[in-house]
Amino acid sequence: MAKVIPISEHFQHFVEELKDSFWGDLQGEAQRTAKRFFERLSEQQRDRYMGDARYVRSAKRKDHRNGYYLRDFVTRFGTLRLRIARSRKRGFLPAVMAKFQRRAEEVCLLIREAFLRGISTRQVGRVVGVLTGEVVSAQTVSQLTRDLDEAVRQFHQARLEDQWAYLFLDGVSLRVRRPSGRQRVHMLVAYGVRRDGSRQLLAFLRSNGESQSAWEGLLGDLYRRGLRGQNLLLIVTDGCPGLAAAIPTVYPRALHQRCWVHKMRNILERVRKRDYDEVKKGAQAIYGAEGRRQAEAAFRAFRRRWQRDYGPMVRRLERDLPELLSFFHFPRHLWKKLRTTNIIERCFVEVRRRTRPMVCFVNVQSVDRIIYSIFQRFNLEWKTRTLKLFTQAA
User: What's residue 203's pLDDT?
Assistant: First the structure.
């Protein structure tokens, strides 16, 4: 058996000092090397421009060397103070630098990515400061994220193929700072699934509420971009009255399914505590039935039991029953997926998680940027991942 040699406290200190020395020297050497590289690149560009070597006199000279000027450039190795070569007529920034650019592109990408991951603008500046030695202001972070506005515009105008079979529609509410105070802004979202199980977040629209006109705006945008509904079989919604009224105006041939999770919440919210479990079990028997005929029979039993105690609730359930049972028209193994909007609610969980640290958006444009980035990340992940249940149905 090998003998265990105890590690002394002195040896532990030695190891820590060695690590600090190694990484400190590595960081310092990287900065020095990058500084020499950029400065040499600047001088080479000036030499090519001049067309002759230093200290060589020429009658054809079109300009004169004029020393250097100092410029700070923030990189992944930290903030570098560079000597930029210049002539009397112009300066010579290294090829990797653009005019007025103070940060390397990878640093700008880091700032944008940190913001899009849900870190507040103030905290982003501090995080970047740990890496580069320069604390970035919240205003600078906001300015850099404005580059996403063009990507958002392209997302809203992208053409859609008319191959979507299932459409899930729902909304999420976010807080935005306005001159009159904090207000809630609704984000209406469309999520599509093809017959082969491929999926995509298709569109989002900022609105003041979930009125019929607001939802008609989102559905009309989908139609304009190419989703004409020729292959659309079912639209699943949360039960919003404005949305239910908007669907027939744009996609009158598609079946409409109301979400059972939202409906169960409505059924149980005013039930007395002593009746809660029995009412819940009776309602679950409706959507958990073996088929539509059995579900209608389960509803009739539910109505006989609770008509006297909860008449208004039972009548609302009876009114909505046709749209609550639309999922029975589809293959059995899809029933669980098609009877709720859970598939889109999972996306909203990520939206809330990312936006929670921000507390309140400064303006509506920042809402669009963060929503776009979250949806774009989902869409990229889903390119190689299909919903297997829908694939089986195909």
Answer: 94
